[in-house]
Predict the 3D structure of the following.
Amino acid sequence: MKAIQYHGNKDIRLEEIPLPNIQNTEVLIKIDYCGLCATDIEEYLYGPNSIKKTPMTPGHELVGTVENIGKSVTNITPGQRVVIDGIISCQKCLACTKGLNNQCTERGTVGFSHNGGFAEYLIWPAEQAFSLPDSVSTESAALIEPASVACHAIELAKIQPNETVCIIGAGTLGLLAAQIAKIKTSKVIAIDTREISLQLAKNLGITQTIDVKNKDMHEELKTLTEGKMPEVIIETAGGPTALKSSIENVKSGGRIIMVAVQGQDLKVPVDTIVNKELQLIGTGGYRTHNVKEAINLLEKKQLITDCLISGYINLEEVISDGYNKMMSKEKNIFRLLVDPHNKHQNLNK
Ligand SMILES: [Zn+2]
Ligand SMILES: [Zn+2]
């Protein structure tokens, strides 16, 4: 089969690789779509960091159709559309027995330690494949993985109905988290420098936005919260200033949910954290139940993901139109979906 292979820093190639045999407990998934994410770009530019061995097929935001099942598989049948829990954990350690499978020290992740979705097919444990309801489109399901990450972040935020939640960074994750926060409280504010992101936030029902390219974040937050400031800040932007302004702008006693991976050590106002008695909560990946929650939210139309799809590319275009576009400075892209079987192009013919 055709698959993108990561060989090392700035070295990815489209290659022909053998399709492994399917084991009794596994399913063979024909990949429909797989999203290209900022993490993939970080691995390309600065990795291998999360990629554990090379060559590796990247791609962790996937949806596909089951083509074959192992002898002992009973939960999935061929022809079903599925998304996966992409984290493989030992199921034995303390973290696993508490349901914290994303904290398992033995864990592996699709696209980083196990071949991922930038390929024609994927073999995965059947227990970790979940079928999609008919009402959820295959395209919108390609964003269930980042939506699961957003569900996990909002879960850790423990938002109360009357609290104000501020999302710093209205990219894909920020806009997913904003929609899920909106289910918990009516007071959600989205902050970004990009007009296109803030417009999209408004289209998704996040009416309060701050354009920090032209406006002062502190003053605007003060006005929007009538001087109270937000109890919760979800930091998805990354970079040296986002965490610092989260600490400065959150209400005393408030929570900062750190979603962005920084890739560097940051200088932050530590005494402000102490004096304001802030809680800084890191959130990494998702847990199995978050995947089911994300499917459920899409089914109930409480979460809209279609508008975050910026385009479709085939495997031949992954490098030229995928990685290169994602790295360009002027990028106004949310998710590009890799379409290994030209499904989308064929649909539009
Ligand atoms: Zn991702
Ligand atoms: Zn474990």
